[in-house]
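hiii so my PI (J.) wants the whole complex modelled not just the main chain, which honestly fair. so below is everything: two entries, each one labled with what it is. i double checked the lines twice but i was tired so who knows lol
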Amino acid sequence: MIYKKDANFPYPVLTNTSNSYESGGFTLSVDLKENTDNYRFDIEYEVESEFLQRLLARKQAQLFLIIQSKDNKFFKLQPDERAIEIAKSRLSINTRTSIQMSIQATTDISFRDNEDINDFYREFKDDIVVPKHALLGFSNTVIFEGSSTKPFDLFERKIDATLKSDIKVELGSETIVIHYKNEDLQFAGMPMSGTLNNPYIYMGLQKALHRFATNPDYGDDGHVYLDDVELPTDQLDAKLYRLMKAKMVYELDVDSLDEVIYKISDRVIEKYATAVKGLEASGD
Amino acid sequence: MEIKLLSKGYKKNEQFYNDFLNDTIESNDDYFSDETVYIKAAPDFPIYMAKRSEEVRKQLFLEAFETVGNHYLGSNRELHFDEQFCHSLLVLKKRDFLLREYPEIKDSITNFNNIVLKNFDWENYIYKTVIGAEYITDLVEDEATRKHYYEVIVDNLDLFNYMIKYEVFRNKQFVFNILSIVDELGLSSVLKKKITDRDDLGDDVRVGRQVLLEFNKSYPVVMSPMLEKEELKEIFMEYLGYYVNVAELEILV
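here's the output for the full assembly
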């Protein structure tokens, strides 16, 4: 299983976010290639602790590559191994696939000679013995989500005559769905009908971003620092996340949703206003 | 064989159910996405084993494991592990088979949803079959041994379900190792036993599930899914000892 949380370990663990090691971390980057039958993951990694490097060289510790999609796959890696191949019949990339490396102790490990840990632990490192089978470090997580050719459109429009309101904005599993009671409400047939729907786009973004901002998985009290959030599992949130990152939004806050919409929405309101003025100018 | 893929919205849809009964799904383009997939062959296999006697259920499972193992696992996993594909195959190509084998489908949409359109997760019999068949065919060459392991799964279904339900255990080698240990040491009936003298553990606790729970609690200080079988066996017996008197079991470790 991919390990993401900075859990409370009773001993120092090398990760990119914990400070139990003095400096450095455990970084992984993965390049996905494929042919007709197989996926191949070309991997590069760096374990920035001489102590752990020594353990790996002496086989007192073992490197694992973990690939998690529908289930978990583990690969014991030799220190010089840089690629893993898996048949497409045994791995699905279309669902979110996460990859991580970890280091496991293969024997009880004394931390007496570990010069890489921080001052706090260093004072009693003679007493630290990490049991066999335990986790010594884990890398960042690399994520793949299928072929990049699939569209990442945010919105869907639907007609639903049974609606109890004229329109309804719904957050679907991958899109913001705007349901209209009838086609007329979409300004169908009018010039610039697409742009005339922009207020609904605005409403949809408000609803979706509000949910994002108040999701306790991402932040606290309706305030999210995007750099602290990993790519969300929820497909719609993942699209919003990417969009915000691409538009250089760093913070999301329930009180500043409108500013964020302004940054990410490519002037929807301005375009709408221009369209309305254009209609007015053209007569009637 | 060409299979059109259903587009979303078919689930819990009364009209879809009626159209299934009237055999008018395929002719209605509204039900389909633009995607079509091709598979070599799609032989029938049991897709629902609930409410059968233990003996019948076992036979149905064995038949399903063998058919899926021999005919379905060669496609891309995106396909044979996909809910939409699974449901499309059933309603388009298996209608007659389903109505014949599971006539209760005709009684109510609830039965239809529960048997044919069931969510593709660990509670779904096809999902169980696909994952079990994949794990066993990949790790066991010999036909007779495969059959034996399929039986071990069915005889320890509660344990198997528990393993494929939880992310930390849903791994080929771990599932296989645990099944092997249970089989070798003849622990099946011990693991199924209810724990009655521990009010602190909640209702309906069984020894096997508790042992797995101990593995879950100790991860990642004990990275159990990555362990070799012999290493795993030692820890398995240790955790088993929390709940039963291992010395009385008369098993060799």
